[in-house]
């Protein structure tokens, strides 16, 4: 932590640099997310792909899953070679190019299907690779601004989380409106411009971060990015573009058997490599005990996000097809992507209250420990699905239901998210050994990768394995059960945290 960038009261000024950088990155990502499933399911005559609901959700699940898997690689490269700052530049440039590729894919709708498919896949691939560099490393820099037991740390991540959700609030309104009313290319293009704005802001405000985020083993007096560093950024960007494009061009020529073999080999090597890095970077009983807590909570993290990420898939389609979106007195129909903003504005409104709550409870010795907060988040998620199940029942038979059902669900899920997500980011930076903190952040996002994939394919799996089990009922059971189990485990996990709260 660099004291020169720390205010006497409150938080380091660098926190607000990261706040606005992340705001623009999330504007970019959530703007795309609000449109993706609708773009894929829209008929070709309307500029879309015309895919079936289950196929679009599966693509969405695979994409969002991989988005949260690549941070393992991005975290490793930042810890060992690049440092967090260069990784952020690389990730931001790749994501901007990915958005522009999605926008370009619209130009081939109904004409050259292979070109449209290639540009779609290229855009999604660049977004996946870019997020891997960006996401774990900006969160790691937030944690590096504070000492491990600084009581402001949970509060700082909650403030940082407000930046995430400020971007997530505006993006469906801007990108969603442009995509629905003017054309998909305008929605994706505006998301790309948002990412570029974030990079420009980060470049001009990076000095507020002090010594945080530079490449490892760099002398303090040389702690700045020179021209050679920016050349390296461009080389990494070019290499990633070539890697994604080359992979896509060769992948389609392989048979299913070869594809599956490659997937299994890569997955095995990734797991072994991650395990080796964690093993060699962790020393002593205290570090191993804390790493074990991260691993256990990562499992419960999967239960939360597999439910929460229904927002971009089944919730988005429910808004499109089952919700009465017409405002009669205004003679206006609410675009379905607008509902994606409810969660974000609720977080922006309630995050300060949660931040104050944790600080005040800490002062009187009543602040719940991290596992208990996680458990509360899971139980609130389950309660939200109780409401969603009622809405789904009311919509049976083709009925259009009040938009207040979705508003209520998003609000309850927001309370659950505030108990779990920013606390999880803070927890990783507290408990992980410092020399592998970005890798452990990547591992944390890997649990979200599996959860996001499950969110996309869960409806299809239930239809095949448990055809009589409605999706939202199933999520009530899994979320609440996981929450109560975690409550029972919380005293043991608190002890394993070895004094870190």
CATH superfamily: MFS general substrate transporter like domains
Question: Which H/E pattern describes the elements?
Answer: HHHHHHHHHHHEEHHHHH
| CATH topology term | Growth Hormone, Chain: A
Strand order of the largest sheet: 1-2
Structural class: mainly alpha
Mean pLDDT: 86
Distance between the termini: 19 Å
- Beta percentage is under 5%
The helix content is over 70%
Number of strands: 2
- CATH architecture, by name, is Up-down Bundle
Low-confidence stretches: 1-8
Number of helices: 16
Instruction: List the domain count as a whole number.
Output: 1
Rg from alpha-carbon coordinates: 22 Å
Main sheet record? 2 strands, antiparallel
Describe the structure in brief:
By secondary structure, the chain is mainly α.
SSE arrangement:
Elements: H1 14-41, H2 53-67, H3 71-82, H4 84-105, H5 113-144, H6 153-181, H7 184-205, H8 227-251, H9 256-281, H10 284-308, H11 314-321, E1 326-327, E2 332-333, H12 341-363, H13 370-394, H14 404-431, H15 437-465, H16 471-496
Antiparallel strand pairs: 1-2
Helix pairs in contact: 1-2, 1-4, 1-5, 1-6, 1-7, 2-5, 2-15, 3-4, 3-5, 3-15, 4-5, 4-7, 4-8, 5-8, 5-14, 5-15, 6-7, 6-12, 6-14, 10-13, 10-14, 10-15, 10-16, 12-14, 13-14, 13-16, 14-15
Describe this structure in words.
- This protein has helices at residues 14-41, 53-67, 71-82, 84-105, 113-144, 153-181, 184-205, 227-251, 256-281, 284-308, 314-321, 341-363, 370-394, 404-431, 437-465, 471-496; strands spanning 326-327, 332-333.
- The chain is mostly helical.
- The chain has a single domain (11-496), classed as Growth Hormone, Chain: A (Up-down Bundle), CATH 1.20.1250.20.
- It has a two-stranded antiparallel ribbon with strand order 1-2.
- A hairpin with a 4-residue loop joins strand 1 (326-327) and strand 2 (332-333).
- The two termini are 19 Å apart.
């Amino acid at each position: 932590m660099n004291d020169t960038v720390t205010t006497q009261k409150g938080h380091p000024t660098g926190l607000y640099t990261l706040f606005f950088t992340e705001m623009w990155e999330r504007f970019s990502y959530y703007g795309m997310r609000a449109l993706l499933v609708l773009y894929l399911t829209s008929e070709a005559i309307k500029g879309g792909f015309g895919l079936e609901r289950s196929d679009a959700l599966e693509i969405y699940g695979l994409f969002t899953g991989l988005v949260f898997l690549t941070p393992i690689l991005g975290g490793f490269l930042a810890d060992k070679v690049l440092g967090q700052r260069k990784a952020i530049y690389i990730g931001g440039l790749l994501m901007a190019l990915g958005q522009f590729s999605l926008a370009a894919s619209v130009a081939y709708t109904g004409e050259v299907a292979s070109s449209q498919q290639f540009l779609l896949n290229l855009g999604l691939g660049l977004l996946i690779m870019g997020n891997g560099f960006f996401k774990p490393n900006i969160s790691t820099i937030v944690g590096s601004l504070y000492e491990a037991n600084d009581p402001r740390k949970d509060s700082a991540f909650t403030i940082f989380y407000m930046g995430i959700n400020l971007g997530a609030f505006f993006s469906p309104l801007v990108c969603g409106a442009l995509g629905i009313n003017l054309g998909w290319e305008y929605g994706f293009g505006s998301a790309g411009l948002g990412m570029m704005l974030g990079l420009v802001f980060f470049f001009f405000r990076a000095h507020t971060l002090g010594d945080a985020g530079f490449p490892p083993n760099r002398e303090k007096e040389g702690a700045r990015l020179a021209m050679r560093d920016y050349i390296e950024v461009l080389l990494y960007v070019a290499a990633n573009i070539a890697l994604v494009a080359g992979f896509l061009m060769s992948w389609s020529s392989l048979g299913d058997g070869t594809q599956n073999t490659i997937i299994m080999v890569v997955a095995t090597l990734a797991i072994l490599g991650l395990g080796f890095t964690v093993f060699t970077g962790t020393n002593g009983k205290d570090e191993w005990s804390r790493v074990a807590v991260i691993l256990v909570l990562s499992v419960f993290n999967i239960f939360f996000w597999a439910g929460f990420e229904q927002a971009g898939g089944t919730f988005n389609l429910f808004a499109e097809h089952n919700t009465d979106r017409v405002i009669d007195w205004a003679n206006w129909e609410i675009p379905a992507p607008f509902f994606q903003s409810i969660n974000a504005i609720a977080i922006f409104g309630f995050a300060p209250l949660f931040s104050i709550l944790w600080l005040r409870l800490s002062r009187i010795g009543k602040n719940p420990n991290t596992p208990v907060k996680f458990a509360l988040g899971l139980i609130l998620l389950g309660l939200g699905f109780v409401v969603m199940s009622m809405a789904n029942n009311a919509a049976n038979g083709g009925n259009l239901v009040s938009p207040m059902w979705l508003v209520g669900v998003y609000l309850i899920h927001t309370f659950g998210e505030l108990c779990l997500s920013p606390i999880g980011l803070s927890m990783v930076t507290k408990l992980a050994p410092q020399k592998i903190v970005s890798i452990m952040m990547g591992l944390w996002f890997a649990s979200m990768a599996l959860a996001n994939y499950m969110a996309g394919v869960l409806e299809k799996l239930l239809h095949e394995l448990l055809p009589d089990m409605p999706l939202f009922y199933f999520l009530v059971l899994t979320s609440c059960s996981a929450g109560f189990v975690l409550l029972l485990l919380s005293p043991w996990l608190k002890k394993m945290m070895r004094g870190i709260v």
